[in-house]
Design brief:
This protein is mostly helical. It has a domain at about 25-55. The chain is built from 1 helix and no strands.
């Protein structure tokens, strides 16, 4: 009885750790993408400002 409980506990723990690592990877990816998008938008705004400045 004890062995099966421990076995199930180990399994659920492994699954939980796997899910957590996947979530961490997902959050990291979302964060990187967001930062890249913000950086890209900032770069585009700067380029637009430079173009407007050159046009004047």
């Amino acid at each position: 009885m004890e062995a099966t409980i421990n076995g199930n506990f180990d399994r659920t723990l492994k699954v939980e750790l796997l899910i957590r690592s996947c979530m961490v990877k997902l959050y990291a990816q979302i964060a990187t993408t967001t930062v890249e998008n913000v950086f890209h938008l900032g770069k585009m705004k700067m380029e637009r400002r430079l173009l407007l400045y050159v046009d004047e």
